[in-house]
């Protein structure tokens, strides 16, 4: 049971203040994202007198903390919105009324209103909007069974066997499902949408927000990597012991106890424009070749330390993030972060460096150095033990199937030195202005992306050689490889 996409009249109020509900709308986009519009202020301003004796209204500051949770009613559906951001607020001229537009992190569409402690989950089902897994295929109208009118009534299609495995958070099942769409009433064909679904079963109830952060977020970022483009939520449902529904056929029968059913959740991460899933064949790993029961556990075990780098990966895959120089700097941050998280400095090196800093600072105590000068010295020496960007590139290349070493025919060290020098130039604005040629920046960015994504796929359980091969065979990776193989001389000449 869920509300269809569109704009729906609704009333909204702060829990415990039902006597001050306001009229507004509940807007569900085609991609599942939810927005709340209020025609009045949920927290009306208090009037006070000015020095001239006139009455005026003072509006309180608004922010997400003021709308931690809201309840709403749209038709027969009870809505519970959680963690709400106020995206805009406008004053209506001639009246002390403010109209607000809100974006909640989570909206639960249920039979009853829920409190924060009732937003718990025992089972969740997640269907991603994933380009490489979604494919429309036209079939004969009678395929899969038909009614008397000739319309398809059941469709069963499976091209990938169901897989189940255990994660730390719970047990997961991956399966492929199908939806039917009629081309037109006069058409003799229907379309079947094949897509993936992930079902999580928890050993005990968990907060819905925890499930979103610990399961949905890393899973979306994993699918971003596999699909080589940002993945969005198509549908998200959950079952909970605190969210019960009456019998669908006898809703007023009190003798039939309410039961757990799939309940719809709208999540902010689902906001994106729909796109044609078959236009670009750019996925890094073919889904039918992915071994889910080894790939997902490997990814989840690494994700706790690599969440920031996974977010950088998503940014680099976003087609709207198109500035070449920004992509280069971000790709360098990605490679540095991947190396830092995968090869942390030994505690002995950190301790030895701290002792060195203490000796330097102590030697400066008797000199004419202020405390500000000494702090600058401490800051400059704090990460002295860390390897350079050049060293990080060479080491990551060695454990990622040698993509750069092969592309440059054994010249990975000069290439790494040139990339580090170019990044240094961009770190200082005066030197960045001297970088007039774009080709060296293109090659450096391509080399970092080729290396970073090859290494990331190894975090998804693939062998070094397999990860490197998948990246190089993809549309993105083959472009990066072509640039590094055929144009690295532009970068190496600049470094000569």
From TrEMBL:
InterPro entries reported in the protein's UniProt record: HEPN_Apea
Pfam families, sorted: HEPN_Apea (PF18739)
Superkingdom, taxonomy of origin: Bacteria
Domain named Apea-like HEPN: residues: 330-450
Protein name (record): Apea-like HEPN domain-containing protein
Species of origin: Labedaea rhizosphaerae
Lineage, opening ranks: Bacteria, Bacillati, Actinomycetota, Actinomycetes, Pseudonocardiales
């Amino acid at each position: 049971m869920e509300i269809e996409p569109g704009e729906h009249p609704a009333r909204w109020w702060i829990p415990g203040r039902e006597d001050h509900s306001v009229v507004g709308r509940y807007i569900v986009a085609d991609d599942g994202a939810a927005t709340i519009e209020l025609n009045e202020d949920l927290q009306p301003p208090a009037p006070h007198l000015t020095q001239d004796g006139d009455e005026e209204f003072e509006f309180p500051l608004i922010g997400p903390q003021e709308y931690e949770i809201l309840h709403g009613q749209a038709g027969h559906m009870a809505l519970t919105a959680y963690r709400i951001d106020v995206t805009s607020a406008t004053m209506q001229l001639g009246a002390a009324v403010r109209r607000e537009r809100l974006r909640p992190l989570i909206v639960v569409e249920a039979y009853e209103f829920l409190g924060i402690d009732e937003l718990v989950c025992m089972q969740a089902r997640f269907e991603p909007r994933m380009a490489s897994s979604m494919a429309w295929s036209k079939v004969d109208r009678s395929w899969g069974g038909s009614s008397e009118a000739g319309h398809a009534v059941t469709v069963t299609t499976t091209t990938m066997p169901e897989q189940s495995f255990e994660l730390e958070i719970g047990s997961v099942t991956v399966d492929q499902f199908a939806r039917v769409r009629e081309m037109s009433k006069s058409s003799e064909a229907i379309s079947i949408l094949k897509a993936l679904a992930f079902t999580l079963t928890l050993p005990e109830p968990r907060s819905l927000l925890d499930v979103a952060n610990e399961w949905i977020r890393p899973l979306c970022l994993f699918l971003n990597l596999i699909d080589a483009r940002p993945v969005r939520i198509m549908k998200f449902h959950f079952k909970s012991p605190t969210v019960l529904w009456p019998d669908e056929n006898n809703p007023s029968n009190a003798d039939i106890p309410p039961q757990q059913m799939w309940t719809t959740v709208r999540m902010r991460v689902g906001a994106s424009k729909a796109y044609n899933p078959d236009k670009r064949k750019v996925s890094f790993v073919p889904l039918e070749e992915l071994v889910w029961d080894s790939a997902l556990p490997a990814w989840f075990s690494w994700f706790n330390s690599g969440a920031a780098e996974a977010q950088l990966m998503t940014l680099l895959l976003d087609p709207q993030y198109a500035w070449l120089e920004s992509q280069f700097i971000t790709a360098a941050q990605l490679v540095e972060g991947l190396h830092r998280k995968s090869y942390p400095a030994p505690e002995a090196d950190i301790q030895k460096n701290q002792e060195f800093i203490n000796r330097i600072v102590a030697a400066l105590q008797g000199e004419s150095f202020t405390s500000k000068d000494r702090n600058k010295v401490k800051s400059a020496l704090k990460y002295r033990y860390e390897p350079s960007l050049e060293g990080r590139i060479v080491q990551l290349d060695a454990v990622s199937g040698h993509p750069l070493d092969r592309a440059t025919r054994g010249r990975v060290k000069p290439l790494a030195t040139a990339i580090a020098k170019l990044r240094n130039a961009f770190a200082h604005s005066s030197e960045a202005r001297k970088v007039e040629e774009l080709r060296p920046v293109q090659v450096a960015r391509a080399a970092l992306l080729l290396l970073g994504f090859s290494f990331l796929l190894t975090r998804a359980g693939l062998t070094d050689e397999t990860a490197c091969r998948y990246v190089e065979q993809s549309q993105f990776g083959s472009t990066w490889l072509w640039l590094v193989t055929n144009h690295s001389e532009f970068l190496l000449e600049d470094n000569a």
